[in-house]
Amino acid sequence: MGKLYYELCKDYRFKEGMKTCINCGTCTAICPAAEFYKYDPRKIVDTVQRKNDDDILALLKSETIWYCGECMSCVTRCPRKNGAGLVVMALRTLSTRLGYFTESERGRQLYPLSKALNGNILNYGYCVHPETFKYEDHPESGPVFEWVLNHKEDVYARVGANYMKSGPGALRKIEKEDLDELKAIFDETGGTAHMEMIEEGSKKKAAEMGMEMDEYLKYTFEHCSPGHFNNE
Amino acid sequence: MIYQGKQKIWSDYQKEIPSDHWFYARSCIRQSFFPASEVYFLKICRDLLGKDIYETAHHTTCGGISYHSDTIPQETVMTIVARQFALMTEAGYKNLVCSCITSFGNYTEILETWREFPELEARIREHLWKACRREFEKPEYVAHASDLIYKFRNDIAERAKYRLVNKETGEPLRVVEHIGCHYSKMFPHKGVGGAEYPCVLSGMAESWGGQVIDYPERRHCCGFGFRQYLVKANRGYSLSNTHKKFESMEPFHPDLIITNCPGCPYFLDRWQYVISEMNGKTYGENGYGIPVFTYEELAGMVLGYDPWDLGLQMHQVAVEPLLDKIGIEYDPSKKYLGLNEKDIMRPALPSVMKCC
After folding, report:
1. Do the chains contact at A121 and B228, CB–CB below 8 Å?
2. Contact between B65 and A89 using a beta-carbon 8 Å cutoff
3. CA-CA distance, A88 to A91, in Å (whole number)?
4. Does the distance separating the beta carbons of B237 and A36 come in below 8 Å?
5. How many Cβ atoms are within 10 Å of B158's Cβ, its own excluded?
6. Which residues, numbered 45 to 104 in chain A, qualify as contacts with chain B under a Cβ-Cβ cut-off of 8 Å?
7. Which residue of A40, B193, B279, B307 pairs with B199 in a disulfide if CB–CB is 3.0 to 4.6 A?
8. Helix, strand, coil content of chain A in percent (nearest 5)
9. A158, exposed or middle or buried, with CB in 10 Å at 0-12, 13-18, 19+?
């Protein structure tokens, strides 16, 4: 057994999701990502269960482990109770921990994701929040949501939310004492260290690509190179 | 309850949902895009049905979206959830009901993982104590808010002012039900009807007079895919999945769609707008889209609450043709007014899909 396989075995999602794959391909047949991306969960699970470090290393640096949408349809259908989605989650965490995520375009997207989602959790108490949801980043949210965002206080008050105010209710302000507890949880459980690994790896990669961090953030959020899709 | 014979076989698909005393946890996405749905869930349960649903201002996200976008480790999300459990314990509750399907899947996954690996639960208890000086009891029951509305569907039907019926023809409306993936695909025994016969939404639609239609991609994901939507470069994945579903349901002429995940109604509503702008195609009647509702909105509609109090003006697809079909009363001039009828302008119109 290789060192990387041993590292994967420490992940509880790997313990749950990697039993004995019989290579039937049911996970790939049901997978929404496999239909659009050059993605085959059967091959990923089969590669991992061969326990070859070189092959696992190639996966950690690859685009393919970032194509899964984590809908977990594969978990329902696997006749051997594997979870390809869970194996992918373990691979992504290991790729991040070892700094290989910046080797792929899709892996590098961890930078804008961490900035947005973890920033929202630590500043607003929720993963998604209207205060940071910008229409220019989300034109698909439609003219109706552009109107909502331009009149946030009025629209949310009209429909009964408690927008950015104290007390219970939808979209209430999360008080500092509660945000401090979330920060303490991040510090204690490795969440902060995980964010720092993403930040450090991204800075190194941005320098390699000759970009300032603002430019790198925008590029990783918006840029899609050819080659990801089945129809290409 | 002890089941025998055929009842025993079907018992795997049943949920014995406690009828009262719940600790409520809000959703990142539902409160942002469908805040009135959370307002009306509480109003229906508390004011109409007399149930005890408790909310503390101190609760937060469960961290599920971040976890499924791989930006926080498993022990971080578990400790955030452990803090929610601690708030529930401190408030004296044993049943937890959450607004979000990602949260429901997250709570369920965490409790199941701790059941299999008790040493991990012990470590999380230690983390929570060190970080927050809090302790917790695990909930005796975790439900999604749609489970409660399903449980009370007949109580709602008894009090309903309207039914999901075409007022002109008397025919039942054709309803597409779309269940969020993390409701029962990971842990089928935790959802009403499991992954094979999920009836949490079809049960509501039928109780309220509608006819549920089957179509080939009924169980296909809406296409959220966490990072596949959240990163702008990846959104083709999300759009393509929704497109696939609409192409599949189109021949069955649905009147409306009901959903239980907070993300699905947003995607199924907004990607219809994008498809219309990109391809010039609309899926509803006469150039409109197919309206997509949360289960709270649909319950509120049949109960006769004002559509604008329910927040239906925050949808991109116009709901008025459906309101007219059912005969629901509304004042079109008040659709986009703020509190106390304040004029806050109105959204621009899409270039293809008709809106009112």
Report:
1. no
2. no
3. 5
4. yes
5. 9
6. 66, 68-73, 75-76, 83, 89, 92-93, 96
7. B193
8. 65, 0, 35
9. buried
What local confidence, expressed as pLDDT, does residue B14 receive? 81
For chain A, the residue count is: 232
ipTM for this model: 0.98
Distance from C-alpha of B64 to C-alpha of B106, rounded to nearest angstrom: 6
Q: Give the residue among B193, B150, B163, B167 at the shortest CA–CA distance from B296.
A: B150
C-beta separation of B226 from B69 below 8 A: yes
CA-to-CA distance for B62 and A85, rounded, in angstroms? 20
**Which chain A residues have a beta carbon less than 8 Å from that of B63?**
121, 127
CB pair distance less than 8 Å for B237 and A190: no
A112 pLDDT tier (thresholds 50, 70, 90)? very high
CA dist., res. B166 & res. B323, Å (int) = 10
pLDDT tens per residue, range B300-353: 999 999 999 999 999 999 999 999 999 999 999 999 999 999 999 999 999 999
Phi, psi (5° rounding) for residue A145?
-80, -25
- Cα–Cα distance measured from residue B181 to residue A33, given in angstroms and rounded to the nearest whole number: 14
Predicted local distance difference test score (pLDDT) of residue B132? 98
**Which residue pairs, CB below 8 angstroms and at least 24 apart, start in B3-12?**
B12/B189, B12/B194
Taking a C-beta distance cutoff of 8 angstroms, is the pair B205, B258 a contact? yes
What parts of chain B have a pLDDT lower than 70?
Answer: 1-2
Instruction: Supply A122's token pair.
Output: 């630590």
Q: What is the pLDDT of residue B5?
A: 75
Mean pLDDT (whole number) for A83-104: 98
How far CA B230 is from CA of A116, B227, B235, B264, in Å, comes to: 9, 5, 8, 14
Residue of A nearest to B336 (CA): A155
Q: What is the pLDDT of residue B1?
A: 59
How many whole angstroms from its chain centre is CA A85? Answer: 12
Rounded Cα distance between B314 and B318, Å, is 9
Structure tokens at B19: 């009828």
Residue B294 per-residue DSSP state: E
CB contact under 8 A, A190 and B76: yes
Q: Which residues of B touch A108 (CB under 8 A)?
A: none
pLDDT of residue A173: 98
Place of tokens 């219809």: B272
State whether residue A53 is helix, strand or coil. helix
Residue A116 touches chain B, beta carbons under 8 Å: yes
Helices A41-49 and A53-60: angle between axes, nearest 10 degrees: 140
Quick check: A17 and A82 in contact, CB under 8 A? Answer: yes
* Calpha distance A211→A213 (Å, rounded): 6
Cα–Cα distances (Å) from B50 to B45, B47, B147, in that order, read 6, 5, 17
